[in-house]
User: What shape does this take?
Amino acid sequence: MTGLTVVLVALSLALDVAGQLLFKVGLNKLEQQGIDAGAHFWLAIARSPWLVGGISAYAIEIPLWTAVLGLLPLSIAFPLASLSYCGVAIAARFVLGEKIPLRRWLATVLITAGVAVVAGSASTAGVG
Assistant: This one.
């Protein structure tokens, strides 16, 4: 993979993780305020800087991901995107303070190992 491809994938992953964190923080804050389902809920979402930030992260990610798909075969790009699961688990632990059980950490390691295999096959095939 070229340096540009690596940067685009990394930015896409970072925005995906950031979007998930912003959504979670925003919804937690709405819950703390006692805001639940209904019309008021949707208005609160539209006014939440956390949730608007999450939506914005995804809006920025769309053209980056599209560029990645233009540079890599889908069979390589999509497995790389699964690293966002790992990033979200790490961020949930260290940013949100969530407890992550050992089995989930092991699954995260397995995902990372799988991505390493896919990325290795891409580099030996001269892709991206």
